[in-house]
Amino acid sequence: QVQLIESGGALVQAGGSLRLSCGASGRTFRTYTMGWFRQAPGKEREFVAAISWCVGRSIYAYSVKGRFTISRDNANNTVYLQLNSLQPEDTAVYYCAADSRRTYHLGRSVYEYDYWGQGTQVTVSS
Q1: Which of 68, 104, 110, 116 could cross-link to 64 by cystine, CB 3.0-4.6 Å?
Q2: Which of 15, 17, 94 is nearest to 49 (CA)?
Q3: What is the pLDDT of residues 22-77, one digit of tens each?
Q4: How far from 72 is each of 35, 45, 59, 99, CA to CA, in Å?
Q5: In a 3-state reduction of DSSP, which class is residue 100?
Q6: Are 49 and 59 in contact (CB under 8 A)?
Q7: CA 18 – CA 15 distance, rounded (Å)
């Protein structure tokens, strides 16, 4: 069983930055692909970024590429999402997710992740 706890969400002005953190329990965290998703009011949950267990492989949604950076610290069971140049359209609840079933696959679909955190709210004012 894996538990994921997000933190770092806040209210920020357009153009600002935030760093989200996701702490994970479980001895095998370091072998999981980790992802970040977000869900705005009235919209479906959408992919933001994912990182493989072996640092160096990551993928991003087109809308955030060049502005957001995903990273992980396996020694501390933590994955991060650095959000720069934030825009009002980035406002959403951000969720951390873990794929414990595939070691090398980087998924973009919510159905490819089997563990989820409770989410952290990011609000960007114009």
Answers
A1: 68
A2: 94
A3: 999 876 777 889 999 999 999 999 999 999 987 669 999 999 999 999 999 988 89
A4: 10, 22, 13, 14
A5: coil
A6: yes
A7: 10
